[in-house]
Write a structure and sequence with these properties.
heterotrimer; A alpha/beta; B mainly alpha; C mainly alpha; A: alpha/beta; Rossmann fold; 2 domains; 6-stranded mixed beta sheet; 4-stranded antiparallel beta sheet; 9 helices; globular; B: mainly alpha; 3 domains; 1% strand
Chain lengths: 245, 330, 290
């Protein structure tokens, strides 16, 4: 079943098209990767799905329901969770409260304090942070802050989880652990749609990959197909040459 | 139940509860022996406690700086002015709160959908707006600006203020610990993330803003008979926005007790300095506000953890020293 | 209805000063990200100093403005590099900085207005300079108003040209758009911020000088002017300098019409009505970015 679908998605900033006529879909239970050079429009696409930005034209559907016009908090309650590229943790609270916010407000029906606390504890256990429940999040290392973000999103009981550059800034061990965590999340039944630059992760756990460049989708397929795709190689090599010169 | 066991299991509650009870009894009986001057001073202090804690409840947790307390306070004052001959005092008080609540709801619905800067601009102008609208209405409807308020006994005003203060502090204390309080804090932490975790940020902001305004309206009604004569300039005086902000920032917006500390300190200072240095003291307050924002952004309450750390370090050293001596002596 | 042309012209004359007033404020917010609610106090200082220079030393208001402008520029410049830069350095986030800067400006409002109160006293005073009526295109107008208008327009255009044509002006606009990139391209951000804050204060002071020619000067005129400036800034679009000037003219015309067809006391309520409609329909203002 297609849990997430987008048709003719466009986003203009002034005259500039950040996302240009993109069609995409994610099937339930998949781990789909979204890659592309910097500025390709990946985070913008996520922002359109989660309604952080208004869509210029096109349609996005979650489980058949149109997301256009919904506000971010409604999209969360419908079942789409997300993390952010620059970790947007609640810096004025300890770890537990961060997850608690997700637990309390992420579901469409009101839940009791005891239930919310339970959900938050479970989410923290799942990502391996139960020992640090009382620690203020600002005191945590980057990788643990990212764990908090994931736990917080999980506490909202999503069916689809958008991960925006989860691996950015992590070292090799941490990346492997993160890859395990993502697979573990999918195995509980949550579909994953992830933006990533870290090739090891993308190739390692994604079943399908979409490539964006200048806001357009230029390729889509399995990791092997993408790795062999001439256009993709040019686009990335081109990036490297420019970066090197 | 055994007394000693009761004390040990409820230590924390008693540590805070007993002093508060003593303070309450002291305050409740104060007019009997306090004298007029100090009763009035205490009334003013309680007024500022309510204004500061209400301001901090919204602006301190969400980070949206409201400059409007004077507007809501003034609504309370004029509510008393319009209704003083028609309804009994205790009934007018909640009505003043209600009018302020409604005004804040309107302001919030228009501005809290937008960036914080528009909210700040609107709330700043709201004070002038209310002052001019009321002046216009008064001169149109009654042909004159300003009116006389029938005075009430000092004790009545004091007890009204005391009851309102206790009610306000209790309400805000429980709100802070509730889901609503958590959602407010999440907005202050990172508004975009809060929205994506399911928090209806606009609704939370508008509701909290309106609640804080209601408390300010209550206070306005109670203070009207103290002023005896009111006009738009007196009722909507910008200092009723400035002082709660100064008090909350000084005391520390993060903690519940911060604004209370600030209110006590500056209410006392204002009353005593106003007599001796009528113009200079406001100048001093402005300087203090800037100094506190620069050097003590978390206020006095922000110093407490640091002091606790230092104190804890000292105590630990003393304890270790004592242990070392013991070991040496055996 | 034959009154209408005269009312509109009158509105344009006052509006030009509102425009000048707002340009300073929008520069300070657009670039330095400080919502300077003490802006009106700088206007008041300009007005009070002009009054003093004219009545005590016989210096005419335009010359006084030429003195006061640079003086207030220096004050604004100093405030930015000490107070606001300090706040920016120690703030945990941009939102926290803007909140703190706002409160600090509130403190500044009290400091400046009370210093003025202590030096100058509270009651309003006025002076007359070029205060006679002239005939222009069949309308009777006061000459001092025409002069004030001319000065406001000249300065407004000068500032606009400076921002759009000069290198420094381009650096300022780059900083307003995207500070980190501007910094990478070699712009001295701290200097630009201080310059803009100083420029804003200068414009406030000059506006104050012009205002002092037309209405009684008092140490309490700051607050009201800040509120008007804020409304004009939002109408023109936060951060848009040409927008502020145009919006100022519009507000001037509105003020003139409301005063004539209704009552002076309804002017500010009408401004607020406009502000409310604006915030509901198009918060970005006339020339603001969405």
């Amino acid at each position: 079943m297609r849990i997430l679908e987008g048709q003719g998605v466009n986003k203009y900033f002034g005259g500039l098209a950040a996302v240009s006529n993109v069609d995409f879909h994610v099937d339930q239970g998949e781990i789909v990767g979204l890659i592309g050079p910097n500025g390709a429009g990946k985070t913008t696409l996520f922002n359109l799905i989660s309604a952080a930005l208004p869509i210029s034209s096109g349609e996005i559907r979650f489980k058949g329901q149109k997301l256009n016009g919904l506000k971010p908090h409604q999209i969360c309650q419908v079942g789409v969770g997300r993390t952010f590229q620059e970790t947007k943790i609640f810096g004025n609270m300890p770890v537990f409260q961060n997850a608690l916010v997700g637990a309390f407000f992420g579901t469409p029906t009101r839940i009791s304090g005891a239930d919310a606390a339970r959900e938050a504890t479970q989410a923290l256990d799942f990502v391996g942070l139960s020992a640090m429940s009382e620690t203020p999040v600002i005191d945590l290392t980057l990788v643990n802050q990212k764990r908090v973000e994931v736990a917080r999103a999980l506490a909202t009981k999503p069916e689809l989880l958008l991960l925006d550059e989860l691996m950015a800034g992590l070292n090799s061990t941490e990346i492997s652990e993160a890859m395990e965590l993502v697979t573990k999340i999918r195995n509980t039944g949550i579909t994953i749609f992830m933006v990533e630059h870290v090739m090891k992760a993308i190739m390692g756990i994604c079943e399908r990959i979409m490539v964006l460049h200048h806001g357009e989708k230029i390729a889509e397929g399995t990791p092997q197909e993408i790795a062999a795709n001439k256009t993709v190689i040019e686009v990335y090599l081109g990036e490297e040459i420019n970066a090197g010169s | 139940m055994d007394i000693t066991r009761f004390i040990s299991t409820h230590r924390k509650l008693l540590l805070v509860g007993v002093p508060i009870l003593i303070i309450l009894i002291f305050l409740a009986t104060f007019p009997l022996y306090g004298g007029v001057y100090y009763t009035r001073l205490l009334t003013t202090i309680l007024m500022y406690v309510i204004l500061s804690v209400s301001w901090a409840m919204f602006s301190g947790s969400t980070g949206y700086m409201s400059l409007a307390p004077a507007a809501f306070f003034g609504v309370g004052i004029y509510t008393m002015g319009f209704l003083q001959s028609t309804l009994p005092f205790p009934v007018i008080i909640p009505i003043g709160g209600l009018f302020s609540f409604i005004l804040a709801l309107l302001v919030g619905m228009v501005t809290l959908r937008l960036r914080g800067i528009y909210f700040a601009i609107f709330t700043f102008g709201l004070v002038v707006f209310m002052s001019e609208v009321v002046a216009a209405l008064e001169s149109d409807l009654f042909g004159r600006v300003g009116q006389h308020i029938n005075p009430l006994p000092d004790e009545t005003i004091f007890y009204a203020m005391l009851v309102t203060a206790v009610a306000t502090l209790l309400a805000i204390y429980f709100i802070r610990r509730s889901r609503l309080g958590l959602s407010m804090l999440s907005i202050g932490g990172n508004e975009e993330a809060a929205e994506h975790m399911g928090v209806n940020t606009t609704r939370v902001k508008v509701l909290t803003f309106a609640i804080s305004a209601a408390f300010m309206g209550l206070v306005g009604v109670i203070m009207a008979p103290v002023k005896v004569y009111i006009d738009p300039r007196i009722a909507f005086s910008l200092s009723y926005s400035f002082m709660p902000i100064l008090m909350s920032v000084f005391g520390g917006m993060g903690q519940f007790y911060g604004p209370v500390v600030g209110a006590v300190v500056f209410a006392y200072l204002e009353k005593t300095l106003r007599a001796q240095f009528p113009q200079y003291f406001m100048l001093g307050f402005g300087i203090i506000l800037i100094l506190v924002i620069l050097f003590l952004p978390n206020g006095i309450a922000g110093l407490v953890p640091k002091l606790q750390n230092r104190l804890g370090g000292v105590l630990a050293k003393l304890r270790k020293g004592g242990e070392a001596e013991q070991h040496a002596n055996t | 209805m034959s009154e209408l042309p005269r009312l509109i012209v009158s509105g344009i004359l006052s509006g030009s000063i509102y425009g000048l007033l707002a340009m300073g404020l929008t520069l300070q917010y657009g670039v330095a990200r400080v919502l300077n609610i003490a802006h009106g106090e700088f206007v008041m200082v300009g007005a009070v100093l002009t009054y003093t220079l004219y009545t005590s030393f016989g210096i005419n208001p335009l010359v006084a403005a030429a003195i006061i402008g640079p003086l207030l520029f220096g004050l604004g410049f100093l405030l930015q590099i000490t107070l606001f830069r300090g706040l920016k350095a120690w703030a945990p986030s941009q939102a926290a900085f803007e909140g703190n800067a706002l409160l600090a400006a509130f403190g500044l409002l009290y400091i400046i207005s009370y210093i003025a109160l202590l030096e100058f006293g509270a009651f309003p005073r006025r002076y007359d300079w070029l205060n006679y009526v002239v005939e222009f295109a069949g309308m009777s107008l006061r000459f001092n108003r025409i002069v004030a208008f001319a000065v406001a327009v000249v300065i407004g255009v000068a500032v606009y040209l400076f921002l759009t044509r000069s290198r420094l002006g381009r650096a300022i606009r780059a900083t307003a758009e995207d500070p980190p990139t501007a910094g990478l391209m070699g712009v001295n951000i701290n200097m630009v911020l201080a310059l803009c804050f100083g420029l804003g204060a200068l414009l406030a002071g000059v506006a104050g000088s012009l205002i002092s020619m037309l209405i009684p000067v008092s140490t309490t005129l700051g607050f009201r002017n800040t509120v008007i400036a804020l409304i004009v800034v939002v109408l023109g679009g936060l951060g848009s300098v040409p927008g502020s000037f145009i919006a100022g003219i519009i507000i001037g015309i509105v003020s003139s019409l409301v005063t004539s067809f209704w009552q002076p006391v309804y002017v500010v309520p009408v401004y607020f009505g406009i502000l409310m409609v604006l915030l509901l329909a198009r918060p970005a203002g006339i020339l603001g970015k969405k």
